[in-house]
Design brief:
- Helix content is 88%, strand content 0%.
- By secondary structure, it is mainly alpha-helical.
- It has one domain.
- The relative contact order is 0.06.
Length: 59
Amino acid sequence: MQKGHPRHKQLKRAKHDMALYRRRKSKEMAESLILAFKIIGGAAAAAGRLIAKYFRNTH
């Protein structure tokens, strides 16, 4: 005898697939944010070094 509605298995699989998709997308988003902040941090550090070099030479 069949237990429950026949679409339950299909719906359960779809929910599981969406959970995996969301997990993968959030991981990709986190990696891209980390990379963006590394780039911004590197640019800020370079700018800071240039400013410090300028002030060392002028004062």
